[in-house]
Amino acid sequence: MNLTTTVAPLADPISLAEAKNHLGVDTTDLDTKITALIASETQRVEAWLRRALITRTNVLRLDRFPRIIMPPDSSPLRAVTSIAYNDTNGDAQTWASSYYTVDRYSEPARIHPAFGQVYPATREDYN
């Protein structure tokens, strides 16, 4: 399983102004250091919580179907844009969203075939 962030969060959980206000800093001398601390502490807290604090876009690569269970690091799952796979001939395909359901309320989120559907036949390639 390989989870890669393709679009990083557009903002930090707290702004530079909020951090400076909390720290009682009213000059710009420490802006670079405070900004770096916000970024590093965000990463540390996300790793500790095993949750994303800010929305980002991830790509999950699996070796094969079935049982698509999202990694805890991707919680909470907001949406699934698409599911692509290689068919038995090795050709790239997209699994129609009407063929699967996303259980984003479970932790971690899960993806299953919709009622009456099955996982598509795939070539077992890595990632």
Provide a descriptive summary of the structure in words:
- With 127 residues, the chain is of the alpha+beta class.
- It has two helices and seven strands; from the N terminus they run βααββββββ.
- The strands form three sheets. The chain has a three-stranded antiparallel β-sheet, with no helix packed on it.
- It is elongated and about 60 Å long.
- The model has no long low-confidence stretch (mean pLDDT 87).
Shape: elongated
Could you tell me the radius of gyration in angstroms?
A: 19 Å
Average pLDDT over all residues = 87
Main sheet makeup: 3 strands, antiparallel
Number of strands: 7
How far apart lie the N and C ends? 7 Å
Model regions low in confidence, pLDDT < 50 over at least 5 residues: none
Q: DSSP strand (E) fraction? A: 15-25%
Number of helices: 2
The helix content, as a percent range, equals 10-25%
- Give the helices and strands as they follow along the chain: EHHEEEEEE
Strands side by side in the biggest sheet: 3-7-6
Question: Structural class given helices, strands, pairing?
Answer: alpha+beta
List keywords for this structure.
127 residues; alpha+beta; 21% helix; 23% strand
